[in-house]
Amino acid sequence: MSNQPQILIVEDEKEIAQILKSSLEEIGLKSLDFSDGKMALDYIQGTDLKSIELFILDRMLPSTNGLEICKFIRMYKATQKIPVLMLTALSTPEQIVEGLDAGADDYITKPFDLPIFQARVRSLLRRGQRNQKENPNESKKILKHKELTIDLDQCKTWIKEEHIELTLSEFKLLSCFMMNPGKVLTRNQLVEYIQDGPVHVTDRTIDTHVFGLRKKLGTYSNVIETIRGVGYRVINEE
Fold this sequence. Notes:
Blueprint: E1 6-10, H1 14-26, E2 30-34, H2 37-46, E3 52-58, H3 66-75, E4 84-88, H4 93-101, E5 106-109, H5 114-133, E6 142-145, E7 148-151, E8 156-159, E9 162-164, H6 168-179, E10 185-186, H7 187-194, H8 203-217, E11 224-227, E12 231-234
Parallel strand pairs: 1-2, 1-3, 3-4, 4-5
Antiparallel strand pairs: 6-7, 7-8, 8-9, 10-12, 11-12
Helix pairs in contact: 6-8
């Protein structure tokens, strides 16, 4: 049981926190919860976090809100690679983008469906376990998604054995997607990733590059999923 992943929940509504804990227990996962943002931050900074494999954060919290906690998790060395699921009643595209830009890996809006919540948790745990197994000093040179392959060193892309010619911006976008399978990437995050020197990249430019990328991927274009009002992601093949 010592190797069992543990989930840290930060949710100030006791009823919802209990629902989350019970739902996690149904799929064999342990959890601990905090109702206050500052108390959660104090725990994160003062505890050995080896058993923590996922954070679930509400946005509206006493003392310190979920956005600030998420930003801290991404800055704090001990937690940088631990996935974050944001659970929030703030459901506009702009509010969701704020959460993702703060560093959340995924989000669920309230009210939510418990089987979907459980599926998102399992997906994030798989991603976190893969991150832990990877040597941070060795970057992946070859990325694969079913029959799609990209070589980061040579900046080349293939579907099956067919080489696909991409612009540098299209290749950077595809690389970013495939390094984060299943993760929703906002347009702001994608702008930062492909921005290069004096070239000014905008949200609209990202949409144009994604359109061009999909066109070149042909029948494989549906691997890139549009999250309306938020951004894009590559569908996780698992």
